[in-house]
């Protein structure tokens, strides 16, 4: 199967989850919607979980894309880079709330790992480590006076709050709206953290 066929499989899996939920997104249903045989799917994916992981991995990599942009773009103006990085990080955090299917997959795979699926657990550990390191590297470009260990800790805390907010969103908690959440994150990243850094110099 070519890349186009794999894209169809991933798109179909995402559509099924969005319309019918995770339980209905079986390999058989995915193959029907994608217009490929189950044999074709099993040639590339061992099971449904591998398909789901790839759907999640493909979509939830914004921090890595932002990082790559700043590392490889030599034309970035250093004076505006810090603000741009934080704006992009904030935007990527808020964009996560629009990715219901991928967020459901992340939660589903995380629970599978917690419940003893070692293969999924190891994949999710690697994925979380990648997310944490990518966000930490972006923060290092912005908060130059923070030690690596503190930046790593901040990255863990930021990602944990995003996970918690997404969990609330998935079960229907709607006390806070996205605009207010974005405002709090903006104040945290642009005002509170720099003030804390300056106070401990």
**Helix coverage percent of residues?**
over 70%
Gyration radius over CA? 19 Å
Order of helices and strands: HHHHHHHHHH
Q: State the low-pLDDT regions, or none.
A: none
Number of strands: 0
Domains, number: 2
Distance between the termini: 57 Å
Global structural class: mainly alpha
Mean pLDDT: 85
* Major β-sheet annotation: none
Percent range for β-strand residues: under 5%
- Give the CA-based shape: elongated
Give the count of helical stretches: 10
Protein name: TetR/AcrR family transcriptional regulator
InterPro entries: Homeodomain-like_sf, HTH-type_Tx_Regulator, HTH_TetR
DNA-binding region: 26-45
Domain HTH tetR-type: 3-63
Summarize the structure.
Helices cover 80% and strands 0% of the residues.
Please explain how this structure is put together.
- Residues 3-63 form the HTH tetR-type domain.
- This is TetR/AcrR family transcriptional regulator.
- Pfam families: TetR_N.
- Residues 26-45 bind DNA.
- The longest helix has 25 residues, at 118-142.
- The chain is mostly helical.
- α1 (3-20) crosses α7 (100-114) and α5 (62-72) runs antiparallel to α6 (78-95).
- It is elongated and about 60 Å long.
- It contains 10 helices and no strands.
- The protein has 2 domains: 3-48, Arc Repressor Mutant, subunit A; 60-199.
- The protein starts with a helix and ends with a helix.
- Helices cover 80% and strands 0% of the residues.
């Amino acid at each position: 199967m070519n890349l186009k066929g794999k894209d169809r499989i991933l798109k179909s899996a995402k559509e099924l989850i969005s319309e019918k939920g995770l339980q209905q997104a079986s390999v058989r249903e995915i193959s029907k919607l994608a217009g490929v045989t189950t044999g074709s799917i099993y040639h590339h994916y061992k099971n449904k979980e591998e398909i789901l992981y790839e759907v999640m991995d493909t979509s939830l990599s914004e921090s890595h894309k932002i990082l790559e942009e700043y590392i490889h773009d030599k034309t970035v103006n250093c004076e505006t880079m810090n603000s741009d990085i934080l704006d992009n990080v904030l935007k990527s955090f808020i964009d996560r709330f629009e990715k219901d299917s991928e967020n459901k997959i992340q939660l589903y795979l995380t629970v599978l790992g917690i419940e003893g699926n070692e293969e999924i657990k190891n994949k999710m550990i690697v994925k979380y480590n990648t997310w944490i390191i990518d966000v930490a590297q972006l923060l290092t470009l912005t908060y130059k006076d923070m030690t690596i260990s503190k930046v790593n800790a901040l990255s863990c805390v930021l990602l944990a709050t995003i996970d918690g907010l997404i969990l609330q969103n998935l079960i229907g908690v709607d006390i806070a709206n996205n605009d207010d959440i974005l405002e709090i994150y903006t104040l945290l990243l642009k005002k509170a953290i720099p003030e804390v850094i300056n106070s401990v110099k």
